Amino acid sequence: MTDANTPPSRGRILVVDDQRNMRATTALLLRAEHYTVFEAGTGEEALAHLSGGSMDLLLTDLKMEPMDGLTLLRRALEVAPRLQVIMMTAFGSIESAVEAMRLGAYDYVTKPFKESELRYRVERALERARLLRDVDNLATDFNQRHGLSALVGRSAAMRDLTSRLMRVAQSDATVLIQGESGTGKELVARALHAHSRRKSRSFVPVNCAAISESLLESELFGHAKGAFTGAVKARRGLFEEADGGTLFIDEVTETSPTFQSKLLRALQEGEVRRVGESTALRVDVRTVAATNRDIEIEVREKRFRQDLYYRLNVVTLRVPPLRERLDDVPVLAEHFLERANARSPNPRRLSASAVTHLMGYDFPGNVRELENLVEQAAALAESDELMPEDFPLRQARLPPAHGTSSLSALDGQLGLGTGTAGGPTLAQVVEDAERRAIAQSLERHGVDLARVADELGVSSTTLWRKMKRLNLRPPTEASRE
């Protein structure tokens, strides 16, 4: 048992030396500094220690038999790539110590060494070990929150998006992300960064719609002291902040043509000029842009520069709206509920009827709206099990499973019913045409609904919903009854 008054260990160190007295003296010195120290007299014994538990630092002699320090270094880094290694060497073996550092050692110390020198080098090596652990932890957390695990969904549309994202992530190609508000465009941008070679550098987002036109140039490019009223000191822009990393320019179509020309120049030249300065600065930035508008229409209407569009549209990723991937609603709802439960003392669970209720809605607010609905239900529900009534939907645009079509529902709201001469309404005509087209395609393809959907030019989800509303089933399935 550890004494309550004993200071906590400052790190785990393995001392390796085939000279017992030297090894014991070094270990004693380090234990006095409150390090947890293990000893080994041979390279094989040291490797057994390393494979059996985590070490922060290996302090090993260079000249040993039968396994020398360089061989131990190579094998140790195979077992523990993040291990910090300090070589102990005689004064005449400096070249070997340099070779050790080339092979991955952090530092070396020459014998005989002063106690203060050893303490200093050990402290520096352990500080590096701590920094690397912090980087690993931050990278893991970033990837969990913004990597592919954040792109929740099992639909074909999401699988296609994920596959395309992974193919382009490793390149430095400029990416244009298109999708409606609330679909998760920034999550896609962060996933691109998290799986790129730039993942250890900064991901810098900027929302052009949230910044006034007068400040946007300064925000992205920076400014010199006195460049304008209020510029009391020089300031780096977001391009400089993202140097070596990824710059995410959201809502890029909200910018003016004047600003677009400056952005185009920065992207073409790979350099920026701070407002009020004449000297350009080189930047190495991967640019990812996003918009919720139809950017091709914006180009045709002369609201967005065509040359900038071609510069941004090297690779396009389209994030589908939630209504096109309703198969993802159950897994997304469970994902958001799990997050809500992690913050609440009263965990909730989704009922099957609540899931069915949510899948009958078209989510004009997309994934963001579903997330808000789940968080609201988790906070306000009276029961541990979330029921349909816990999810007040603004509108139910999708047709009910056993009711009239959306057009006939609209007829009812307007008091139209049947035609004035007792003939069919437009809604009934459309419904009959849909029924005939689907039924004929089902006759041709049977249970192969993918081919039916492809022939009719609709998604599998839309086909399934229409078949359920029209009470249609594949002939081979209906014949079993």
Number of domains: 4
Q: Determine the CATH topology of the largest domain.
A: Rossmann fold
Distance between the termini: 72 Å
- Characterize the biggest β-sheet: 5 strands, parallel
What structural class do you assign from the helix and strand content?
Answer: alpha/beta
CATH class of the largest domain: Alpha Beta
* Radius of gyration, whole Å: 32 Å
The main sheet orders its strands as 2-1-3-4-5
Note the beta-strand portion. 5-15%
Low-confidence stretches: 396-422, 477-481
Number of separate strands: 16
- Portion of residues in helices? 40-55%
What's the name of the CATH homologous superfamily of the largest domain?
P-loop containing nucleotide triphosphate hydrolases
Categorize the overall geometry: extended
Number of helices: 20
| CATH architecture field of the largest domain | 3-Layer(aba) Sandwich
Report what the structure shows:
With 481 residues, this protein is of the alpha/beta class. It folds into four domains: 12-138, Rossmann fold (3-Layer(aba) Sandwich), CATH 3.40.50.2300; 149-320, P-loop containing nucleotide triphosphate hydrolases (Rossmann fold, 3-Layer(aba) Sandwich); 323-390, Helicase, Ruva Protein, domain 3 (Orthogonal Bundle), CATH 1.10.8; 424-478, Homeodomain-like (Arc Repressor Mutant, subunit A, Orthogonal Bundle), CATH 1.10.10. 47% of the residues lie in helices and 14% in strands. The protein is built from 20 helices and 16 strands. The strands form five sheets. It has a five-stranded parallel sheet with strand order 2-1-3-4-5, sandwiched between helices. Helix 4 (94-102) links the parallel strand 4 and strand 5 (107-111). Helix 2 (43-52) runs parallel beside helix 3 (69-79), helix 13 packs across helix 15 and helix 18 crosses helix 19 (460-469). The radius of gyration is 32 Å and the shape is extended. The chain starts with 11 loop residues before the first strand and ends with a helix. The model is unreliable at 396-422 and 477-481 (pLDDT under 50).
